[in-house]
Design a protein that fits this description.
Elements: E1 3-8, H1 32-40, E2 48-54, H2 60-68, E3 72-76, H3 81-91, E4 96-101, H4 109-122, E5 126-128, E6 142-145, H5 146-155, H6 159-163, H7 167-170, E7 178-180, H8 199-212, H9 221-230, H10 250-263, H11 267-280
Parallel strand pairs: 1-2, 1-4, 2-3, 5-7
Antiparallel strand pairs: 4-6, 5-6
Helix pairs in contact: 3-5, 10-11
């Protein structure tokens, strides 16, 4: 049985273009993508680390950075990320797949190993720490069987199912055996962000790395949580950054839009949207 970590990465980003090639720590000569690869190579239960990027010329740099860090590579569709994962998993003959995104430079190899153990123990099709959100955004990790991935690839038709690798599986809990890992009691902080999607996120991650990073070492979830306890002011750096979210219905999307508008203190726009949404009911 072969297990591989597949890291999805590309240079294009709507809010922070080229984010995976930014240096972390700042001025350290190591990019975000290289840090993610290095961390995942420390997973004791993973046989391969693969970076899955697109066939676009702008992602030639992603391939170079991945290989520099010691990862295998795969190139596929820009928009059909599900097909990209399926192609990567098939090329490297994986039985079990770990999904990590390149904008999570605090991804914890010990946490991934815990998910893999739970996945095997439960005989699950899909195991993740995002079934119920208890970990900070940036520690997300998902594990699924190649059989589940293959089924999603063959039967998934909608745009969300193609753009979001596990959407098909997660939206069918009656058809797949799903296992969930939650953060330890007292350390459940889904409101925290240690992911990279905005300039403010980058500032926060630079601060985290300045405090915790030691060349050759790997800090994890526990160390990050302890840092925020010691330096709670760090939370203010990216408090108004909003994570991207996939919604199931138009009503859910309106609620999410209202939440983001209020977060940015755009109260008049929020009131206008709420009024228009109310008239359509």
């Amino acid at each position: 049985m072969k297990t591989g970590v597949i890291i999805q990465a590309r240079m294009s980003s709507t809010r922070l273009p080229g984010k995976v090639a930014k240096e972390l720590p700042y001025g350290g000569g190591i990019t975000v993508l290289e840090q993610v690869v290095r961390r995942m190579k420390k997973c004791s239960l993973a046989d391969e680390v693969i970076v899955a990027t697109t066939t676009g010329r702008d992602d030639d740099l992603v391939v170079r950075l991945a290989r520099k860090a010691g990862a295998k590579t795969f190139r596929g569709s820009r928009e059909d990320v599900l097909a990209r994962y399926y192609g990567a998993a098939g090329k490297y003959r994986l039985d079990t797949v770990v999904r990590i995104t390149s904008d999570c430079p605090c991804a914890d190899p010990a946490l991934v190993d815990s998910l893999l153990r739970l996945h095997a123990r439960r005989g699950a099709d899909y195991t993740a720490n995002v079934v119920k959100l208890t970990y900070p955004d940036g520690f997300d990790a998902e594990v699924f069987s190649f059989a589940a991935l293959q089924r999603a690839h063959r039967q998934g038709r909608t745009r969300p199912e193609r753009e979001h690798v596990t959407f098909y599986i997660r939206s069918r809990p009656a058809e797949f055996k799903i296992a969930s890992l939650q953060a330890p009691a007292g350390q459940r902080r889904p409101d925290l962000r240690v992911t990279l999607d905005t300039p403010d996120d980058y500032l926060l991650l630079c601060a985290v790395y300045d405090n915790l990073y030691a060349r050759g070492g790997t800090f994890g979830f526990a160390e990050v949580m302890d840092l925020f306890l010691r330096k709670p002011w760090l939370e203010e750096i990216n408090r108004r950054s909003a994570a991207k979210k996939v919604t199931a219905t138009q009503s859910d999307e309106v609620r999410e839009a209202l939440r983001v508008l209020k977060l940015q203190e755009l109260h008049r726009a929020a009131a206008l949207l709420a009024a228009k949404a109310g008239k359509k009911r």
